[in-house]
Design a protein that fits this description.
Protein name (chains A, B, C, D, E, F): Hydantoin racemase
CATH architecture of the largest domain in chain A: 3-Layer(aba) Sandwich
CATH topology of the largest domain in chain A: Rossmann fold
Radius of gyration of chain A: 17 Å
InterPro entries (chains A, B, C, D, E, F): Asp/Glu/hydantoin_racemase, Hydantoin_racemase-like, Iso_Racemase_Enz_sf
Shape of chain A: globular
GO molecular function, one term (chains A, B, C, D, E, F): hydantoin racemase activity
Strand order of the largest sheet of chain A: 2-1-3-4
Largest interface: A-F, 45 and 45 residues
Number of helices of chain A: 9
Number of strands of chain A: 8
Strand content of chain A: 15-25%
Largest sheet of chain A: 4 strands, parallel
Catalytic activity (chains A, B, C, D, E, F): D-5-isobutylhydantoin = L-5-isobutylhydantoin; D-5-benzylhydantoin = L-5-benzylhydantoin; a D-5-monosubstituted hydantoin = a L-5-monosubstituted hydantoin
Oligomer: homohexamer
Pfam family, one (chains A, B, C, D, E, F): Asp_Glu_race
Structural class of chain A: alpha/beta
């Protein structure tokens, strides 16, 4: 099976990082195709970036012919609903994926994300997915997304500190890392704190494999009904 | 004061209709500047259209120099959060405006919108605004947005029928018309059914006037913090 | 237009303060008529005061012949529902008004009110208006209402301290001042903390102007149906 | 023990009916003292009546010296919060009492009340008590309160019809009768429909006995803190 | 009347403690019959214990012929729904009972229980009963259930400390003690902190007396419909 | 990998049906081990059956040495929380699995289950998983579980009829079949109605594979902390 991992921002190094993580978790026989959005912001931190990233991301999906499922590799699940209108293949956002996995492993979890400006958008998603009771708190480490790439930024320490507080103050039983750029930290932190620490990219790839094996299709009725072809055409001009 | 009315779809006749309605309700001394999005879908019916409409709409706002408040003239409040990041001037969506006015005039209301495919997006908005208990139901009349322009479409009759059911079945005390293209029907229907029937364009213009008089500013902290200038520049390229 | 500002407590100096604030924000052509309740408590701090204030307040409204909208100038929106049964002119409480304005300017806000005993009543209102997710916390400064009139009470400092905590602990993006007696502090505090700090009296006056311009009427169906005339007569005896 | 049953409306025949029902359910050794509000509306149907009834009802409570608990004998729990500020003796509303009993006997129940205009106030109460999921629906039989006294009004038939629909349409497992004036119907209807049909007066008297035996006291902290004596005095003038 | 108090764990000394407390609060003429579950865990701390305790507890109920109501004397209301299917006599859990009493005496309360591992189960119950807004927080004192029996364990001090924090941090107006083994502490702590401190056993006994006097029956429709006799027989083999 | 499929009722033919369905969806290299509970009810229809089934089911799990994940093959997710305390291997209930898959494929779904008496238990689960907004309605077809095995029962027709109503009345975009015994109907009905019709057994097996590939472990902190070994021993005696 072929899973399309779309990075909705334009930073190719983040796409690559996500791709490596995706391949590590993918089953034998699953091919990971990673694409970078051709246009939009270099990172997604808040509502404006999110909105500007969607058309490029949708274009990246439409440019691909042959895939069995789509992973949207940004933690705020950029354009998830719009993407589901474009294809009946399963589409999963990495935020959604991590939340759903966390909710099958724990009673309550906290999220550790990058900047405070991203928190309200994540809280709205959590509410939409019905996770407002299982997710106790969205914490921000105040590390910009692109600094996660930089070894000297002290990012890991700051994230670890927030996890520690989530365990003692929020009584979190699991942690969700709130940025695709943290994908390489999950295992280490999980071991360090002896609770599940989840990354969205791997969760989403694995859930996509599940849905494909189930031959599951996104509904074509109601909110995800496909837009008329002429509308799609006119938007792409 | 100058209120910018942005039509996030590209159909100029709808912009004009909204503009006329806006001017009718505006106070003396309020200038209405109506702009049409330069790119994106011809009408907004569901998630895909909504997502594709945002960049054009934001560009339309950014192209204007001088305004005191912004009305987003699409009932699903397209790109409202992103627009609030771009300016500290008040920004109001017409869906939000109509819901807030309805909730000051009644205990419970129902919405009558166009197509079923738009309903889930509206329901998510209602939840986000905390209106999920005051709004009893979102009804769809199954009239496409652009047919509202067409006299022979039987649109008014179908909408009236849904209102009647909202009153008897939902026990609605007020009605919100769920499309900018219905702006000219509110008064007539309100009289016909002897309950408040609200249109979003006029509600939003009037609430904008309020906020401007209050010298109210959108917060610059948290989720609406302005994106760094270089990010805005890079997105616009 | 004529807006009736009713102070539901019997302290005339508070009526005057509200009246001055109302006039400052009112549009040209809007006349503010301020009335003090003829009977009931000198200040409204909690459920008992609230209940005892309503008949006097309703009588104050009924004694007026000619108005286009009513502002109830007590932050717990004393008797709002009952007042809406008495007239189809818009009636807005200052608590409600401030919450609705705050929710159009920010993702999340906190309230700073007077005494702890008032907090549960405000929390019930917030829930009723659907604001329980947007309002993070109702904080009490432990300043009795009437001490707000007294320069030497240290009231401003205590309120400022609560605002500071609301920003750092609650991650509030805006603040609502929870008492009509704080009306003169909003601008100063807003500047000091660089976030919207809202007062209910000005918000309510301005929203009333909006509703009047919209020719909006309180519904006469359901919960706000007018009581039979003989019942009103018998209650007034 | 002495239980004070306060009728917040001024119709003495309803007080007597409630008193008879209360005595039937009271334990040996429990004295029922029934008082009628000295002023206010003859029946309570909606927000206005409710607000106008409270001061008379509070006065009726304050006029009594010696009681162990208070039942507020109106289904919208008129002035319940205010009454709890006046005494640390338990105070229970008949609406609240019936809801709490229903929730110990069934998974879900429906309410059958008098007029549609009363429904929103009841729905707000249900929400406040956390009953919004256990109560499926508040149905109105469109019988005015005082017609319940009138044998020829067809009231019983209309109520029975609503119960039947509640069972089939709402899948209600129990029914709450939503008016003090229906107190004499509960047993008959319960037998007729083979599900619990509950009346608030008897539920409240019985719960009061429980609370008195538990030596339970209404908290004096927070929202129910007693108002200062001088404030109570000034309100009574 | 005869009230059956079932201890769902197998520790007879806890049954006895509950029985003594039950008898102290019971009315004259009420007989308390206390039974210990014949099989299952020695104490109930978390989901596993709870699940393993239910069949023994149901068997203990079925072994009794003659009772008017049942109290399930474990704070997580072990097997409450299942027990309600077995008899139309009222069945009340001590957790449920204490929550319902607390909600009639205060606006908001906190719970102080034993171990952190029990907290999620209690939170689920609170949600199910609609108490998630009235209960601010479930605190754990980290005292194992059986250590409550041990004078030297410092249990009372730890519980008192949590109550103190509940009052200052949670603004709790009342406290619910979250374990049947704390039944003897309620009065002392209530006096010490001048707010209602409630124990479930006494609350449940007293509410049972109410329900019996009301001749209230658990519904036989829907979720509490009795299982077919042959199923009960086959399960007991 | 080895997935343990536990049938919590004692009907071996249902275990076999689930096992066949599980094998059809399992990946190459996944071994399905299906076990039947050694004691308890022959089918699970409501609270009593559910409670009586748990110890047998937990024993069935404990009797197995070597597995990588557990599927609880009853739609009410019998004993899910207790099972998660016994092992850090992922444990998924088939109800939970189907709801989570449905929520990744649609905005809103309805459930079609067997008997009305099971509905409240399912509604409680849905609430606990945060699905109360995404699941519009739980419908019962009034077919007892074991009649699903019987060709002449008209079961398929009754289920199809409920699906049809779910689409037209509930505006469901997907359907979840609410009983393990319906596992063989999903594909056919999905095709017939052109929307996703999901069965829990296949969803759960596939999600288990995901979690195993993710090396995900159930948290050992908080509500799922393992009970002390001596407690487990004592319960098993």
């Amino acid at each position: 099976m072929r899973i399309l991992v779309v990075n909705p921002n334009t930073t190719a190094s983040m796409t690559e990082k996500a791709c490596i993580a995706a391949r590590l978790v993918a089953s034998e026989g699953t091919e990971i195709v990673a694409v970078t959005s051709p246009s939009g912001p270099v990172s997604i931190e808040g509502y404006y970036d999110e909105a500007m990233a969607v058309p490029g991301m949708l274009q990246a999906i439409q440019s691909q012919q042959d895939f069995d499922a789509v992973v949207i590799a940004c933690f705020d699940d950029t354009g998830l609903d719009a993407a589901r209108c474009l294809t009946d293949k399963p589409v999963i956002g990495i935020g959604e994926a991590a939340y759903r996995v966390a909710s099958m492993l724990s009673n309550k979890f906290s999220v550790v994300t990058t900047l405070a400006r991203s928190v309200p958008a994540l809280e709205h998603n959590l509410h939409r997915y019905g996770m407002e009771r299982q997710c106790i708190r969205v914490r921000s480490s105040e590390i910009p997304v692109l600094e996660l790439e930089d070894e000297g930024s002290g990012a890991v320490e700051k994230i670890a500190q927030e996890i520690e507080q989530a365990i003692t103050e929020d009584r979190a039983e699991a942690i969700v890392l709130g940025c695709a750029g943290m994908v390489d930290l999950a295992d280490k932190l999980s071991e360090q704190f002896s609770i599940p620490v989840l990354d969205g990219v791997t969760c989403a790839v694995s859930l996509c494999e599940s849905l494909v094996r189930l031959k599951a299709r996104t509904t074509r009725q109601g909110g995800y009904a496909p837009p008329p072809a002429e509308k799609i055409r006119s938007c792409l001009v």
